[in-house]
Amino acid sequence: MMQFYFSNIVLIQATMTGLLLALSIQVPIRMGVFSFAGAGAYGIGCYAGAIFVLDHQLGAIPTIVITCLMTGVIVLALGVLIQKLTGLYLAMATVAFCLIISVIAINGGTTTGGSTGRYGVISDFTMGGMFAITAVALVLVALSERGRLGRRVDAVREDPELAASMGVNVRRYRLVAFAVSGVLGGLAGSMNILVRSAVSPLDIGFHLIVLALTMIIVGGSLSWKGAVLGALIFTWLPDLLKVVGQWQELIYGVIVALAAVLLPRGLYGIYVDTKRSVQRRRREAAGPPAGGSDDETHAERLEPEMEGQR
Amino acid sequence: MSATHTEPGGSLPTGVDPVLEVDDVKVHFGGVKAVDGISMKLMPGMIHGIIGPNGSGKSTLIGAMTRLTRLTSGRLLFDGEEYQNASAAVVARKRVARTFQTVRLLPDLTVLENIQLGADARADDKSGNVLTRLLGKQISPAVRDAVSRTNLEGFEDFYPSELSYGTQRRVEIARAIATGPRLLLLDEPTAGMNQKERAEISALLQSLRTDGLCQLLVEHDVQMMIDTCDHVYAMNFGRLIAEGTPTDVVRSPQVQEAYLGRKWRDHA
Predict the structure, then answer these.
(1) Which of A53, A67, A258, B12 is the most exposed place for a label (fewest CB within 10 A)?
(2) What value does the mean pLDDT take over residues A110-136?
């Protein structure tokens, strides 16, 4: 067990940062906000972490806290600016935000290290701290899917008008989605730089959006459990596919394409659908509900009315 | 075209403050005058109805009352307080609940969870402890009451896609009741229901009236309106063409001309 842990420690770290990156995209999508700003926040988090440790000699925890607050505020400000946009237009605006972060990283002079980036980031961050922070973030996201908050988030995504008529301030929820996305992206980025010790513009490009989106589409976009599945699969799969050599990219692509076509609700969706199917069969076996039979079709229900009109 | 008051002051009681007052409200979409200068008062403990042909502006008016539709001009008052500039969420927190013309349930929530969404809107809902609330296990007494009133026992764990259209309608009504409303706006609540279910909904609305709830009902089932409502408004082309007791309104020549036809002329 310990041998497995130490020989795969880099993949374990990448799983946790990948999971938080995926959540930074998934949380806004759960609220119906098609934003990729979390990937931009990841980039800011990487560089801010490096700058705080190298230039200001901050410890790991202050670095993470300040970075998360900073990325949360930046992405919230972005959200305020583009809150009128929806759908693809919103997505494109947030992609542009991510690209701007890359451009700033390349042209940031000695602060960002230019095309070389920043390296030699050595801090007091431990794996225990990484596990604990990831677990806390995961629990908070999981709780946001349950109870009153979870129902209201579902309503904001599925039917904003209905949500508003249930007393939900839809605009506020969407802005909170931006802020949370920024915090999660910043958390992932800052933890990544603290364990990897180097960052360059190549590490924070468009591919982060593709990676995070792949994780949540294949894993399941509407639950943290889907993000966990996606992060596990797409962090470990490239390593497992090394045995097929040059075919690695092709097989990776085929798996993603098949998942997108065959699993519209992701792998977690299979579990949800199966569970509902079992529950339905149990109910059918138990007989019709006390509230009356529900087996009439819409047309059958309208038949007496139609008869009256004829 | 001016509204025909079949009785002076209609069938509304005098000396009682209205729950909601609509004052010369207009909703125009470019050149289309969906609602064009409507005024009405919704009184406590009464069931009000709106009838009119498709496209006469009934649903748009409900949208305006709940602030989901932007007003072109006019005033809205709830308990005498203007709210035409408030957001839909603020209006909902005044305990104005509504159902929609088409069923709007959340597909990934069970019947019970969909109804609990209504109870979630109540500021006074403190049911369950912190843990059960965090984990989403608590079910408010208002939800149990709404399930019972709408005869949904046994359907609690169903998902909307597993229900017939009429039962989905009942879930929507239950969700609106679970908000603990002071004003209930129902947009064609019995569409897709059979006669027995319509009678049940009519009885439900009348029991809610007994509890003092103010209701506004938009329906095409004229017989149900006659059996259920205390005061009816008739709309055509965004304007009121008649108001009064249900029987007087259906006898109105203007209403028969615009909507009902001759069949209701001699209705007792």
Answers:
(1) A258
(2) 95
A264 touches chain B (CB under 8 A): no
A291–B152 CB contact, under 8 Å? yes
A277 close to B (CB below 8 A): no
| Distance in Å, alpha carbon of A194 to nearest chain B alpha carbon | 33
Q: How high does pLDDT run on average in chain B?
A: 87
Tell me the chain A residues in contact with residue B88 when contact means C-beta distances shorter than 8 Å. 161, 164-165
Mean pLDDT in residue range B105-120: 94
At B88, the amino acid letter reads A
| pLDDT score, position B256 | 84
CA–CA min distance A202, chain B (Å): 39
pLDDT recorded at residue A44: 97
- Residue boundaries of the structural domains of chain A: 2-203, 266-309
Q: Of B66, B67, B13, B64, nearest to B42 (Cα)?
A: B13
Return the closest-CA partner of residue B127 out of A150, A163, A148: A148
Output B252 or A27, whichever has higher pLDDT: A27
DSSP A235-285: HHHHHHGGGGGGGHHHHHHHHHHHHHHH-TTHHHHHHHHHHHHHHHHHHHH
> Which among A147, A165, A289 has CB closest to B133?
A147
Cα-based distances in Å from B163 to B20, B48, B105, B200, B238:
34, 29, 11, 18, 35
Chain B residue with Cα closest to A170: B89
B49 vs B254, which has greater pLDDT? B49
Mean pLDDT of A175-201: 97
Answer yes or no: is pLDDT of A296 > 60.
no
Q: How many residues are there in chain A?
A: 310
Of the residues A140, A165, A173, A282, the best mutation for testing chain B's interface (the one with the most B CB atoms within 10 Å of its CB) is A165
pTM of the entire predicted model:
0.87
CA of A272 to nearest chain B CA: how many angstroms apart?
Answer: 10
Q: Mean pLDDT throughout B186-210? A: 89
Query: Are B108 and A154 in contact (CB < 8 Å)?
Result: yes
